[in-house]
Each structure stands twice: as C-alpha cells, then as structure tokens.
Design brief:
- By secondary structure, the protein is mostly beta strands.
- The chain has one helix and ten strands; from the N terminus they run ββββββββαββ.
- A hairpin with a 2-residue loop joins β4 and β5.
- The mean pLDDT is 88.
C-alpha cells in the first residue's frame, strides 16, 4: 500500500557519529531535551546549535549523561531524513511557503535545554543552488553583491538539505510539517 506522502523512517538508516556537543563547562551542557535540534561544526570535534539562518550540518540524535573534558557527549546524524516544521522564508521568517525541492536553512530556534514541542523549524534559503544571479549594472557594488549571492548559493549546496515532502497538508505553509533530506 503506498502512502500519499513521504514520512521519516522509524529507525535511522545511516550511522550517527559520536562527538562533543557545545563548549566546555557545566553551564554549557546539553541534555536529552536537545535531541532533534539542528547543529553545525563549531570547533575541534564539536557541534553546537544552529542559529536562525545557519546552514544545517547535522541533527542531534542522542545526548549522553556523562561529559568528557567538560564537554557534553552525544551523537549527530548528517544524512537521515528529518521531520521539520516550515517557518517561511530566510529573509522573512514566519511568512511565505516552501515547495518540494527548495533548499532550507535553520529556522526559528528552540534554546538549548528547552524541549522541542514540534519538529525543528526550517526556512527556505534565500540563495537557492543553481538559481540564476544577475547584476542590474556593472557597478562594482552591484557586481560584488551578485558574487556574494553566488557564493552563498554554493555554500547552501555544500550543506544541502532540501524539502522532499510537504507532509499530509501538502502546502508548505508556515507551521505545517514536512520532510527534508540531505541532497547528495
């Protein structure tokens, strides 16, 4: 029996990696409520929570109660599909819709130590990989702005999470739930 939309697998399909989480110090420790949040590489063998607009590098899959060298220890997954809540556009979070195939960045963030009450939020990246970038004229400032857009789009393709399902609602509207996966 086929489904009308893609859903997240019930078990991880790729292996998570064990890493340090956050920065050293007991006031910076992570806990089980931080599982499911988006992270990025912040230092030597360490991942920290993404801020709104950051490229997503991985999702926390487990947090150990023990620490090592003052760091929380946990696991992150860089490849499995993730259920998310759509949060609009990167330039104007909370407004706009997301479509299948759109590349996304981290949306509004739930703080460390606070439980997720819904899947983590994502926004449609402003500069989509493969989109045409033009300059209105050959003024240096406009050309530099166009080059910056191309560089941002290329960076979004390096950490390329994109929408693969709009979920049961199927609109991509703010507050609806869908599925993202890492593009190869």
């Amino acid at each position: 029996m086929s489904r009308s939309y893609l859903r997240k697998p019930t078990l991880p399909s790729s292996q998570s990696i064990t890493t340090r989480l956050g920065t050293s110090g007991s006031s910076n420790n992570y806990s089980a409520v931080d599982q499911g949040k988006f992270v990025k590489l912040i230092g030597e063998s360490a991942y920290g929570l993404c801020a709104a607009g950051d490229r997503i590098e991985a999702v926390i899959t487990a947090v150990e109660q023990a620490t090592a060298g003052g760091y929380s220890i946990g696991s992150v997954n860089e490849w499995d599909a993730v259920m998310v809540t759509f949060d609009g556009l990167q330039a104007t979070p909370g407004t706009g819709a997301i479509a299948v195939g759109d590349y996304v960045v981290c949306g509004t963030v739930v703080a460390r130590g606070t439980d997720l009450t819904a899947p983590p939020k994502v926004c449609k990246a402003t500069n989509q990989p493969g989109a045409t970038v033009t300059s209105s004229d050959n003024v240096v400032g406009n050309i530099n702005a166009a080059i910056a857009k191309v560089v941002d789009a290329q960076m979004n393709s390096l950490f390329a999470w994109r929408v693969v399902s709009l979920g049961s609602v199927g609109t991509g509207a703010v507050g609806t739930v869908g599925l993202i996966a890492r593009a190869d």
